[in-house]
Amino acid sequence: RLRTEEKVCQQMEALLKNVHTGLPDPLTGPAKRSLVKGDYLYFHYGCDGQDDRGWGCGYRTVQTMASWIHLNGSPVRNPSRIAPSLAQIQRALVTMGDKPGSFSGSREWIGTFEASLVLDFFCRVPCKVVHVRGGGAELEQVAVEELRQHFEKHGSPVMMGGDRDNSSKGLLGVCTGDRGSYLLVADPHYFGRQLERTELQRRGWVAWKPVSSLDQSSFYNLCMPQTAAKGV
Question: Is residue 138 part of a domain?
Answer without folding.
Answer: yes
